[in-house]
Amino acid sequence: MPDDVETIKNEALKELESIGEVKRLDEWRVAYLGRSGRLTAVLRTLGALPLEERRALGQRANEAKTALEEALAQREGVIREQEMAQSVAAGRIDVTLPGRSAPLGRLHPSTQMVREICDAFVTMGFQVVEGPEVEWDYYNFEALNIPKDHPARDMWDTLWITPPSESERPMLLRTHTSPMQVRVMEKTRPPVRVVVPGKCYRYEATDATHESQFYQIEGLAVDENITFADLKGTLYQFAQRIFGQGRKVRFRCDYFPFVEPGVDMSIDCFFCEGSGCRICKDSGWIEIMGAGMVHPNVLRKVGYDPEVYTGFAFGMGPERIAMLKYGIDDIRLFYANDLRFLRQF
Ligand code: PHE
């Protein structure tokens, strides 16, 4: 015998009040109004009743069904409104909250300096090219007028991959970017105007001014009628651009086997304006690069006729230049990966 209609209705309404989620409303509907729901069960018994009873009970049951359906619709409306209010409250944006900054990467100071220096030459018509860090003895030494057993090899402490004692074709980590002079000239005919940034390696005990890895930037210009005046003019412009207008430059004789004449270039000390300080070691001058006119032997090696073509070359260390520019006193900081240092650039 199914429960009394009033009891079912009251229990259903009471239960409905306690429901707080839309999901559960459906369970409730199934329990009372579904195919095997409690109220449906009452309606199913009607057929077996005598006419009078059937009419009375049928009417009450149908009224109850309508009441429950209306209550359900109303409850659903209330719950949906609550849920909406809650989700709005939860997702509310506090526009006064300070923003969270996304951590930003930055370029390494060496990279920044390399780019700045290359840019200075690009504006003067030079092209930027790059070459291998693992190099043949031929390019690093031989073709640069530094034959085997030449005492000048001592100028570069070399990290060998296959040393000359073990190989017909010795291989090494390039000790300077000058091998790219040869590679570029082998591949192109004059006019040549290139700058070559790149990593170099030396077998060296490190200290505040020496690292076993460092950048160099090589420069090379070859054409008819290039003179030492072109070298001076180009490097003078470069110095103005990197160290400021009005910088003086000085060239003095120096020796590199692949240039003749060879020079080193200094700028007047921008710390003490030439009066003498710790940075310029009281000389008033700071050396910033090596340079010179490309040696005829080097031109011959790449098939350029030294009677027709002349050129100048230069090489500098961007880390050393950054150290001067920013007052950094230890080159090892560039490769120590200390964020306190790196974040300053
Ligand atoms: N390669 C030389 C060095 O590493 C620098 C240099 C380059 C000098 C070009 C003259 C011309 O010391």
- CATH level-two architecture of the largest domain: 2-Layer Sandwich
User: Order of SSEs, N→C?
Assistant: HHHHHEEHEEHEEHEEEHEHH
Poorly predicted runs are: none
Radius of gyration: 43 Å
Counting DSSP H or I runs of 4 or more residues, the number of helices is 11
Q: What's the rounded overall pLDDT mean?
A: 92
Q: What is the CATH level 1 assignment of the largest domain?
A: Alpha Beta
Global structural class = alpha+beta
Number of domains: 2
**N-to-C span:** 87 Å
Name the shape in a single word.
rod-shaped
Q: How many strand units?
A: 10
Provide structural commentary:
The chain has two domains: 85 residues; 183 residues, BirA Bifunctional Protein, domain 2 (2-Layer Sandwich), CATH 3.30.930.10. 39% of the residues lie in helices and 19% in strands. The protein has eleven helices and ten strands. The relative contact order is 0.10. Bound molecules: phenylalanine.
Descriptive keywords:
345 residues, alpha+beta, BirA Bifunctional Protein, domain 2, 2 domains, seven-stranded mixed β-sheet, three-stranded antiparallel β-sheet, 11 helices, binds phenylalanine
Question: What secondary-structure arrangement, pairings included, does this model have?
Answer:
Blueprint: H1 5-18, H2 22-33, H3 38-45, H4 51-90, H5 109-122, E1 127-128, E2 134-136, H6 137-140, E3 160-162, E4 171-173, H7 179-187, E5 192-201, E6 213-223, H8 228-243, E7 249-253, E8 259-268, E9 285-294, H9 296-301, E10 310-316, H10 318-326, H11 339-342
The structure holds phenylalanine (PHE).
